[in-house]
Hints:
Layout: H1 2-10, H2 13-16, H3 23-36, H4 43-59, H5 66-82, H6 85-115, H7 121-128, H8 133-139, H9 144-150, H10 153-164, H11 166-174, H12 191-194, H13 196-205
Helix pairs in contact: 3-4, 3-5, 4-6, 5-6, 7-9, 10-11, 10-13
Domain F-box: 113-159
Pfam families: At5g52880_ARM, F-box-like
InterPro entries: At5g52880_ARM (IPR057039), F-box-like_dom_sf (IPR036047), F-box_dom (IPR001810)
Amino acid sequence: MRSQIERYEKLGLRDSLPKIYRYPIACKEIGLILREAYIQSPKNLQSIIFHDTLAAFRLLPQIQTQSAVSAVHFLLQSVEAALPKQKRNMAVKEFKLAMVAHKRRSKLHHQEEKDSFQLPHDVLVHIFSFLDMQSLVSVGLVCWSWNLAANDNHLWELQYVVLYGNAAKQELIKQFEGQDKRHLQDPIDTRTITDWKEAVNGAYTGQ
């Protein structure tokens, strides 16, 4: 039992949730674990997974991206499919509260952008796609909306290809082919693939 808990904690999902570019991936990972391994898990581990699920919903208002909303809806579907009634009701309530808060914050953020003549997120991402890695890191320090755009996962996928080549990218992906089903008995941290900023940092530092 302890071994399963340690394997789950090694995934680092709880630490990933507060980070904008990791949040969607962490939500999907928790969702997959709920669907595939929650029922078979010991009660102590079930409790940890459940509280991470609630934490994911509560953090949604802070993550103002469309990918976060899509990921949290996937997590909700997993909740409805895997959790027992009482816990399911608690989680659904947290989800609804989080969506209300998210919409309010999103509306306020869009108003602030309108008042300050901020460029739309997709336009910023397109502009930033022409930057090198050092410049991309620098623009991410300017303001909140630029930081959000500079951490776009696709931008860092492009950086990975520029730095290490498309062959290295394909080799990295190939290492995880056929690993679609992820169970706690054989945990796979897919952030090394889908989190391209993490992949760039890992390759850059030789990890």
